[in-house]
Amino acid sequence: MEKIPLGPMPYMSVMPTVLVGANVEGKPTYMTAAWATVACMEPPMVCVAVSKARYTAKGIDQNGTFSLNVPSVHQVIPTDYCGIVSGSREDKSGVFRSFYGKLGTAPLAEECPVNIECRLFSSVDCGSHILRVGEVVEVYADRSCTTDGKPDITKITPIVYAQHSYFGVGNPVGKAFSEGRKYRKA
Amino acid sequence: MEKIPLGPMPYMSVMPTVLVGANVEGKPTYMTAAWATVACMEPPMVCVAVSKARYTAKGIDQNGTFSLNVPSVHQVIPTDYCGIVSGSREDKSGVFRSFYGKLGTAPLAEECPVNIECRLFSSVDCGSHILRVGEVVEVYADRSCTTDGKPDITKITPIVYAQHSYFGVGNPVGKAFSEGRKYRKA
């Protein structure tokens, strides 16, 4: 196959779509983000890249807390709205109903099926963006979106983000830590 | 809706499936990872959480370089194999053909449709895992997996990772920076 160089760019194949929640001057705001993942197993941590220019960034610094909220494919419109409009221009505190968990300052979006409450662990200044690493203090879920006490993507119907578009999750193609057993060396 | 706390855990709704490549003592090895995302727009950076116990971690430290390689759904078996078997026990240098780019020490898996070549920028010790932040020095793609010079997921057919299983990308549910314009305040 023919490989071609495409130049350096911030590429990732597929990403989650989440809403980063923070209190700015005591009021909740949410911004859409896709540059998020798990950062550590033990203690459990997640991370999200947030532009320095973002209004939500102020809230993360003010409180040392933030949340990641997982919207469903049925919430594409309010989710995308939080990525278009800045909290510095428009009050986004009413886009989702907020509730608070253990930390008291990380707003959690009630309508989102899963909410991850985080205490800021580290901020890595990368340039245009600061990578926010947060220790997960609690995960909340709608009971109706869980199976055997765990979040269930068939019920959550999360949004996959790729090349400036939103997608659902596709068909299963295999179990992890299982498919590889079929591997035979050439 | 009824919210229930599920306890702190390393949760993310959906994730990419990638192969982290590094040279350990001059020889390429690949490990499967899902805890990866973009870390910065400018300069372009990506990050991936790698367990301290991983053989591949040695290579990242030895060279200060690594790669993220995007396999397709047709490569689930060799991809998952690289997550089951440790490079300390089995030589994984033959699972993929390796090529090298600008840095010379970050092996890139030729069979994977997209390859991201990285220079280590920062290592954040989170506990069980170290978050490896890398500056993207080049992105390579199979010409057949691009459209107008950009990677195209309809041709790449990347693997989505969620709750210990692999999935394809599902149906489109909207364009980013567009759907939100339909939002009307309650």
Automatic annotation (TrEMBL), chains A, B:
Its cofactor is FMN. The keyword Iron-sulfur does not apply. This is Flavoredoxin. GO terms for molecular function: FMN binding. Pfam families: Flavin_Reduct. Residues 12-161 form the Flavin reductase like domain. Keywords: Flavoprotein. The keyword Flavoprotein applies. Belongs to the flavoredoxin family.
